[in-house]
């Protein structure tokens, strides 16, 4: 049976194919003959069948793969005994290939749906059944390959139902994705099911937070549901996301690539930026998801949550007084500043391994959730490039959509020069971050820790883009460019460049030019930053700002 | 003596007010300082002193200067420009770049700094230029006072052979031995017999234990002679051998002396410094448990004889090796203020820096030998940024992201030159601080040290508190049964951290479980929203699983008020404590005993790192369900390290003797490059 697990089958789905590990054959068909039973007994029996999923053997097979079953995942994610399941009796409606027979119908089909609570707060969940049930039994019955957890019309309908309700009550949706793809026996009905979900993902976007946790294969059209949600997390080694699998890649582009290289957690969290974070295994992923959920408001009608804080809001942080090195070319770690300022050093970083020259993530200030954006001087001097602009922009827009105040730490030498960036469209992509900061109406607090040069100064939540409170540390240098470059232009060909440079530094490489014009509201001692931010957030809690009516804005995509 | 006079107390208060914005922590030290500076207003010393040092000792000197009303000048390297000693001093001068040869050892730059600032005297601290006769000479040439002994004494005591000869002449016990070169094995046996067994045969050019043999009889002497000369020849290209008495189970005990320029000299009792690793002191105490008054007096008097023999002035230290029969032998004399001087200050009440400054100005000693008391007991732990699990301590570097000295405890002195946010860099000594506790008895001082170590918050660098706490609670140390071989004897396989006994393990697991529950309960406390479950279940009973290493333990917890009862293995642990989840310190009362634990990290996946009894333990707390399911999670394969070489510690690569192709696949470092701990250096084929 072990070797059977490593067996790999290939399924064609239009032009799309995906590869998933397939399981061993079990000759343990369950036979339902329910006609002679009373209704009550039939209810009990169906319910039992739905709860058991594919039976003990299937559960064990899933465990052997280092994965949990759909129901175990839900149990771990939600508060104990809070799960309320819907559509336990739903069955697929496929009438072809012998699928219509009772023995090929499974109560609940290939997804578990319902609602529950995470630390007392309402959430809707769907958990796809991965390779755990339909795969095996259908395999026994029919001699063609079927992906476990495959998406049937019924499966999609179940998901749509909870999404619709989540929208009407205003509560987040969490999807635990583990699906082989479309159910081939159903054909276009399955495709329709995908589209129904996509549409709801789009409609729900900006209304309720949507989170995807990829816990198994997710290939072909299925990848677009996670892509449409706000956050995509992955489980290392057991989850994959790709449009086409390695075999199709090989036949089309002649590239040799493994599943892991093509669409594993490492690829998507470091190279493609598709996933926002990856976790070691199912349990760590689910526990982290609970932690992450605590930061989010339930909907766009709810304020950012405030959790009881043990960290005093007026705590001074003396270590910040010396954190910015004296030489302006020397690096430091923006995460040190963030950890020192936020409540309890607790920072949930988003995309920690992608476009590391910008840091984004969630934290709390005096208990209230805030979104943090910071240039990272440690990586590429903290410059803005294509990837960091897109990363920052998407995060800022999420915060703005869900009433989460944004705190921006600025140390940016400018946009990254070069043909790679220009050809790649840095103008277009850089504009996204500018757009996102400018349109955001949530409280915006900005702290310039050191460099704020050129256009990047404008972009990074400057006063000009409706920053509510903008501070500069004494080490701040708000200028068009660094002293050396500026002097080379202003005093081109003149002698005494060193003297000119010193003059420039004296004039511009400090917070005064910005402060005298009111472009920063105050120059503050770094040690007082936490205290000031907490006070400002309290003041800004009642901020009301509305953008002009429009159908929607036209962000430079 | 040394009762706090009213004027000096006032002065201290003034000091505290005046400088509190600069260094609040230092002022807190002042409050409980175990020495008192008695400046006599009429006794004018210097207007301005330059401190040619950095770190804690520079801060220490500045503190006394402040009390004496002396202006201070700090010198610093570029990377130290915002260091504590720079902030504390009235003036600061940058004397060069980070490497010590370019800054703190840069005599030209320091001489310039003296001229520019008009400092009248220089305190060299320890290390750097403190025992550099050239520096002392240059100061003398410019008429600047050197706060230390005369050049003559520095020179005389700086040379190992000359100092031994002077000591011998001054009737100070020296290690019996043959001063010349031993030519044959038979000659070696003859000399060994004269000295008396055991003897040590060592290479004249030796060092690092190479070419060294201990012999307990004639036979071993012949053998030792042969091996040593071979080894010496191959290691040093020089087979000349010396023989001297081997000191069995030696203790390192030193006498603090203080002398003026008028021929007066005092001994200020001893310091026991036997706990060492790689010849570096780790824990010191004063007085020594080993010395009786007679031996103490004999050692003290010999130390004074030696000081007088070299016309010593200022504070100095005469180091002795003491064998198990209380025979003591002169080792060397340090002509400077020692790192461990605070413990002498604690038991005598003298401010050694003040005395050094007075003496340098030419004043006579204020005290006579009868004035020097032994008041109570003082222990000093050297807190280093180093990993004690590697050879009892390999340097570590980093930024002190959190740093809190245990100064709210009574009779604790912390001499440090860093603060939260400071960098521990590869350029300088990785010492974080000297933690000193004091008490009427040794037991009291040791108890305080335990508390102080438990309350000391250091984050951002690896530190040696686990080792320090193990040493000071080890039965052998507590009973005073120590020698310079203490560490290798007690931890023959290296230091492995605190070994938990069953009770202690239960306490640890219970504490972790309580912390977990506290965090869980808090997670549900969402304020100001109607949108939580209408009937929140106030949970008061939990079933958890706590993992420590390979062990898994099911625990049941019930909460009643603020008391948690944790049941495991049929035993009950009661934990009381209202935990603050923002604080690194977790004060808990466990089964009626007060314990200070520290939480280093706590993550969503239930991993909690706790410092308990000094040592870090990684505990994982999971709900029963999660723990059951966790057994299905795949084991992650860790990196194969058999074919790679990683840096064991941060530092600079001095040389690379291989290149790709000769048995190594690739080389990832260059000479002169700085590397961090764990950085890949070389990949083997």
Architecture overview:
The complex is a heterodimer of chains A (557) and B (685). Chain A has 557 residues and is of the alpha/beta class. Chain A folds into 2 domains: 39-294, Alpha-Beta Complex (2-enoyl-CoA Hydratase, Chain A, domain 1), CATH 3.90.226; 320-476 and 520-540, 2-enoyl-CoA Hydratase, Chain A, domain 1 (Alpha-Beta Complex). In chain A, α6 (153-169) packs parallel to α7, α14 runs parallel beside α16 and α18 (483-490) packs across α19. Chain A starts with a helix and ends in a 17-residue tail after the last helix. With 685 residues, chain B is α+β, with helices and mostly antiparallel strands. In chain B, 30% of the residues lie in helices and 30% in strands. Chain B has 19 helices and 37 strands. In chain B, the strands form 9 sheets. Chain B has an 8-stranded antiparallel beta sheet, with helices on both faces. The longest helix of chain B is centred in the C-terminal third of the chain and has 22 residues, at 502-523. The model of chain B is unreliable at 1-32 (pLDDT under 50). The chains are: A alpha/beta (557), B alpha+beta (685). Chains A and B meet through α4, α12, β12 and α13 of A and β24 and α19 of B.
Helix content of chain B: 25-40%
Termini of chain A, distance in Å? 49 Å
**Widest sheet: strand ordering of chain B:** 14-13-10-11-12-15-22-20
Q: Unreliable stretches of chain A, pLDDT < 50, 5 or more residues?
A: 1-30, 132-147
Mean pLDDT of chain A: 86
The Rg value of chain B, from CA coordinates, equals 28 Å
Please count the helical segments of chain B.
Answer: 19
What structural class results from the helix and strand content of chain A? alpha/beta
Structural class of chain B: alpha+beta
Q: What number is the mean pLDDT of chain B?
A: 88
Poorly predicted tracts of residues of chain B: 1-32
The largest pleated sheet of chain A is described as: 8 strands, mixed
CATH-derived topology of the largest domain in chain A? 2-enoyl-CoA Hydratase, Chain A, domain 1
Tell me the total number of β-strands of chain B: 37
CATH superfamily of the largest domain in chain A: 2-enoyl-CoA Hydratase, Chain A, domain 1
Assess the beta-strand content of chain A as a share of residues. 15-25%
The most extensive contact between chains is: A-B, 54 and 40 residues
Helix content of chain A: 25-40%
The number of distinct β-strands of chain A equals 20
Multimerization state: heterodimer
Shape label of chain A: elongated
GO biological process, one term (chain B): lipid metabolic process
Organism (chain B): Oreochromis aureus (Israeli tilapia)
GO molecular function, one term (chain B): ATP binding
Pfam families (chain B): Biotin_carb_C, Biotin_carb_N, CPSase_L_D2, PCC_BT
């Amino acid at each position: 049976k072990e070797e059977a697990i490593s067996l790999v089958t290939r399924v064609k789905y239009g032009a799309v194919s995906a590869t998933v590990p397939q399981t061993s054959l079990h000759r343990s068909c369950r036979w339902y003959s329910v006609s002679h039973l009373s209704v009550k007994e039939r209810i009990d029996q169906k319910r039992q069948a739905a709860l058991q999923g594919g039976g003990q053997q299937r559960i064990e097979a899933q465990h052997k793969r280092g994965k949990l079953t759909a129901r175990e995942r839900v149990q771990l994610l939600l508060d104990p005994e809070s799960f309320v399941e819907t559509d336990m009796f739903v069955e697929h409606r496929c009438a072809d290939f012998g699928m219509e027979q009772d023995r090929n119908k499974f109560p609940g089909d290939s997804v578990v749906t319902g609602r529950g609570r995470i630390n007392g707060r309402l959430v809707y969940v769907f958990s796809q059944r991965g390779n755990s049930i339909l795969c095996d039994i259908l395999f026994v019955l029919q001699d063609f390959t079927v992906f476990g957890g495959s998406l049937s019309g019924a499966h999609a309908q179940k998901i749509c139902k909870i999404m619709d309700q989540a929208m009407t009550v205003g509560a987040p949706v969490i999807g635990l994705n583990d699906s082989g793809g479309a159910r081939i026996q159903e054909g276009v009905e399955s495709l329709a099911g995908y589209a129904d979900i996509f549409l709801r993902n789009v409609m729900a976007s900006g209304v309720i937070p949507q989170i995807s946790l990829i816990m198994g294969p997710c290939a072909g059209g299925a990848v677009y549901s996670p892509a449409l949600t706000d956050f995509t997390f992955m489980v290392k080694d057991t989850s994959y996301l790709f449009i086409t699998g390695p075999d199709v890649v090989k036949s089309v582009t002649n590239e040799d690539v493994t599943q892991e290289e093509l669409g594993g957690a490492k690829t998507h969290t470091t190279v493609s930026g598709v996933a926002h974070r990856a976790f070691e295994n199912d349990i760590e992923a689910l526990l982290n998801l609970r932690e992450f959920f605590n930061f989010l408001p339930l909907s766009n009608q709810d304020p950012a949550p405030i959790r009881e804080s043990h960290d005093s809001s007026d705590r001074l942080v003396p270590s910040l007084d010396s954190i910015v090195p004296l030489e302006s070319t020397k690096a430091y770690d923006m995460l040190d500043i963030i950890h020192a300022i936020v409540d309890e050093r607790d920072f949930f970083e988003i995309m920690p391994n992608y476009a590391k020259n910008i840091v984004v993530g969630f934290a709390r200030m005096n208990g209230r959730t805030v979104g943090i954006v910071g240039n990272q001087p440690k990586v590429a001097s903290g410059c803005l490039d294509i990837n960091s602009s897109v990363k920052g922009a998407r995060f800022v827009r999420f915060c703005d959509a869900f009433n989460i105040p944004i705190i921006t730490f600025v140390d940016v030498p400018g946009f990254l020069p070069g043909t790679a960036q220009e050809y790649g469209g840095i103008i277009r992509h850089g504009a996204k971050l500018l757009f996102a900061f400018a349109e955001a109406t949530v409280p915006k607090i900005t702290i310039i820790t050191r460099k704020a040069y050129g256009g990047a100064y404008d972009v990074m939540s400057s006063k000009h883009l409706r920053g509510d409170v903008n501070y500069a540390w004494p080490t701040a240098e708000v200028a068009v460019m660094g002293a050396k470059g500026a002097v080379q232009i202003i005093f081109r060909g003149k002698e005494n460049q060193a003297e000119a440079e010193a003059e420039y530094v004296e004039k511009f490489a400090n917070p005064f030019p910005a402060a005298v014009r009111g472009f920063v509201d105050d120059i503050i001692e770094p040690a007082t930053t936490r205290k000031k931010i907490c006070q400002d957030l309290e003041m800004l809690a009642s901020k009301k700002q509305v953008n002009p009516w429009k159908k929607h804005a036209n962000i430079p995509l | 003596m040394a009762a706090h006079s009213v004027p000096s107390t006032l002065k201290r208060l003034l000091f505290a007010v005046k400088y509190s914005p600069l260094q609040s922590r230092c002022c807190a030290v002042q409050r409980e300082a175990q020495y008192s500076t008695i400046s006599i207003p009429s006794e004018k010393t210097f207007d301005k002193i330059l401190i040619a040092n950095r770190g804690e000792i520079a801060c220490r000197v500045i503190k006394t200067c402040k009390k004496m009303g002396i202006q201070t000048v700090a010198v610093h390297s570029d990377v130290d420009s915002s260091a504590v000693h720079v902030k504390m001093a009235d003036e600061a001068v940058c004397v060069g770049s980070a490497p010590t040869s370019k800054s703190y050892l840069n005599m030209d730059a320091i001489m310039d700094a003296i001229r520019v600032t008009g400092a009248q005297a220089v305190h060299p601290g320890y290390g750097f230029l403190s025992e550099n006769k050239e520096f002392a000479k240059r100061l003398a040439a410019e008429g600047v006072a050197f706060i230390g002994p005369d050049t003559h004494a520095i020179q005389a005591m700086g040379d190992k052979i000359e100092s031994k000869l002077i000591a011998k002449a001054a009737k100070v016990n020296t290690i019996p031995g043959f001063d010349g070169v031993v030519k044959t094995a038979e000659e070696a046996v003859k000399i060994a017999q004269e000295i008396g067994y055991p003897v040590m045969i060592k290479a004249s050019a030796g060092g690092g234990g190479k070419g060294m043999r201990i012999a307990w009889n004639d036979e071993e002497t012949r053998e030792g002679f042969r091996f040593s000369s071979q080894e010496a020849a191959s290691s040093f290209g020089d087979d000349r051998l010396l023989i001297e008495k081997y000191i069995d189970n030696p203790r390192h005990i030193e006498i603090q002396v203080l002398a003026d320029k008028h021929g007066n000299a005092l001994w200020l009792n001893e310091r026991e410094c036997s706990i060492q690793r790689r010849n570096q002191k780790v824990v010191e105490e004063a007085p020594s448990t080993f010395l009786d008054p007679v031996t103490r007096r004999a050692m003290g008097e010999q130390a004074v004889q030696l000081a007088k023999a070299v016309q010593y002035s200022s504070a100095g230290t005469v180091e002795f090796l003491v064998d198990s029969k209380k025979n003591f032998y002169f080792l060397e004399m340090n002509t400077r203020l020692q790192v461990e001087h605070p413990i002498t200050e604690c038991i005598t009440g003298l401010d050694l820096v003040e005395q050094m400054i007075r003496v340098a100005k030419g004043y006579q000693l204020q005290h006579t030998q009868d004035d020097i008391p032994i008041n109570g007991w003082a222990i000093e732990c050297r807190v280093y940024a180093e990993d004690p699990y590697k050879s009892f301590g390999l340097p570590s570097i980093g930024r002190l992201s959190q740093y809190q000295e245990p100064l709210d405890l009574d009779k604790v002195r912390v001499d440090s030159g860093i603060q939260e946010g400071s960098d521990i860099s590869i350029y300088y000594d990785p010492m974080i601080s000297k933690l000193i506790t004091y008490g009427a008895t040794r037991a009291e001082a040791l108890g305080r040290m335990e508390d102080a170590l438990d309350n000391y918050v250091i984050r951002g660098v690896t530190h040696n508190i686990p080792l320090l706490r193990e040493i000071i609670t080890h039965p052998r140390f507590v009973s005073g049964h120590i020698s310079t071989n203490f560490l290798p004897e007690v931890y023959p396989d290296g230091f492995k951290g605190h070994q938990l006994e069953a009770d202690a393990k239960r306490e640890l697991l219970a504490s972790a479980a309580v912390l977990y529950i506290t965090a869980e309960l808090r997670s549900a406390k969402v304020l100001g929203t109607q949108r939580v479950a209408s009937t929140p279940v106030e949970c008061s009973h939990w079933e958890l699983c706590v993992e420590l290493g390979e062990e898994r333990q099911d625990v049941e917890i019930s909460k009643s008020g603020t008391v948690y009862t944790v049941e495991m293995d049929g035993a009950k642990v009661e934990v009381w404590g209202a935990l603050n989840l923002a604080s690194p310190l977790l004060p808990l009362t466990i089964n009626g005993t007060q314990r200070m634990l520290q939480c280093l990290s706590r993550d969503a996946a239930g991993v909690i790192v706790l410092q308990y009894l000094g040592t870090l333990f990684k505990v994982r707390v999971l709900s029963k369900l999660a723990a059951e399911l966790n057994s299905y999670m795949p084991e992650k394969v860790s990196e194969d390290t058999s074919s790679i070489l990683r840096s064991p510690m941060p530092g600079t690569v001095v040389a690379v003797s291989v290149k790709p192709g000769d048995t190594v696949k690739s080389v990832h470092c260059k000479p002169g490059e700085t590397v961090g701990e764990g950085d890949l250096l070389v990949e083997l084929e």
